[in-house]
Amino acid sequence: MLEVVNTTVFSLENGGGNPCPVVLNADSLTTDKMQKMTKDFAHESAFVLKSTRSDCDIKIRFFVPLHEMEMCIHATIGSITVLVNRGMIKHSPTIVETMLGPIKVEWEVKGSNLDVNVEQFSPEFLNVNPTVEEICKALCIGIDDINNFPIQSVSTSRYKLIIPLKSVGTLNNLKPNFEYLWKLCDEFNTTGFYPFAIEQESKQCVQARQFPKRAGYNEDPATGVAASALGAYLTENKVFYPLKDGWNSYKIIQGIAMGRPSIIKSETFIQENKIIRTRVKGNAIENSSVFVRETSY
């Protein structure tokens, strides 16, 4: 029997956040069985295994209903929370083996909460991106709805297309042409659209929505990988000014249009005017635990 712990990650309030089933002791599962289980769960899912590397403490594999992913931050936070709650990991930082290599995860118990920080990589910025006209066609909006900052695909682990909009109202009323949006993702080698609008300029807060490329669902209520890329974008383009040496922090609100309000903290570390580190902070809660038979899949 396999234990599946249902978690919710990045919740801003009751009913918010991104669900993530965490499957413990999944070493006996084949890739095909992991994929079938994820399709059955209908959410991004994490499978916790013993590490195959001497420099890592655990291994996590990440799936959406239609395919495996190299990295998923909210599933990492959900997994670490479950493992700490069960005493299966006892020291911070915890080094997680992923398809992208080792990822450092720092965690700290604060009262009834567990704060989890997931490190990512130095950012990469693509110079070839869709035109404003192509973006407007995909999002079904007008050119005047686009803000003056660049449209750019950014990665701190997986590429997301960052799209600046002028208003939160426009953001939350988006009704994309998904087939065309996915076509642009294929053409420009990005894994999803991440439009955003400034929420509270004085508090370095933005709202965003995530439309992933053929994941098995059209929108995600909270996306750590995209929020990390957006944090790097906000820093690189000096959307909020002034910046400081050391950690710069941004609050990213997501999931409002879905009725699943979520909050993600994205941070970038600046040294000599260059981003050298990125990380995402968040929390998870456990909702329920069930046991399933491996033979069911």
Distance between the termini: 12 Å
Assign the structural class, choosing from mainly alpha, mainly beta, alpha/beta, alpha+beta, or little secondary structure. alpha+beta
- Binned, the helix content reads 10-25%
What percent of residues are in strands? 35-45%
Secondary structure elements and pairings:
Blueprint: E1 2-9, E2 18-23, H1 31-41, E3 45-50, E4 58-64, E5 67-69, H2 73-85, E6 94-98, E7 101-110, E8 113-119, E9 124-125, H3 132-139, E10 152-155, E11 160-164, H4 168-172, H5 178-188, E12 192-200, E13 205-208, E14 211-212, H6 224-236, E15 246-254, E16 262-271, E17 274-282, E18 284-292
Parallel strand pairs: 2-3, 4-6, 11-12, 13-15
Antiparallel strand pairs: 1-2, 1-18, 3-4, 4-5, 6-7, 7-8, 8-17, 9-10, 10-11, 12-13, 12-14, 15-16, 16-17
Helix pairs in contact: 3-5
GO molecular function: isomerase activity
Keywords: Isomerase
GO cellular component, one term: cytoplasm
Structure explained in plain terms:
Keywords: Isomerase. It comes from Aneurinibacillus aneurinilyticus ATCC 12856. The chain has six helices and 18 strands. The chain is of the alpha+beta class and 297 residues long. The protein has two domains: 133 residues, Diaminopimelate Epimerase, Chain A, domain 1 (Roll); 159 residues, Roll (Diaminopimelate Epimerase, Chain A, domain 1). The chain has an 18-stranded mixed β-sheet that branches. Strand 12 and strand 13 form a beta hairpin. Helix 3 packs antiparallel against helix 5.
What's a quick, concise take on this entry?
The protein has 297 residues and is α+β, with helices and mostly antiparallel strands. It has 6 helices and 18 strands.
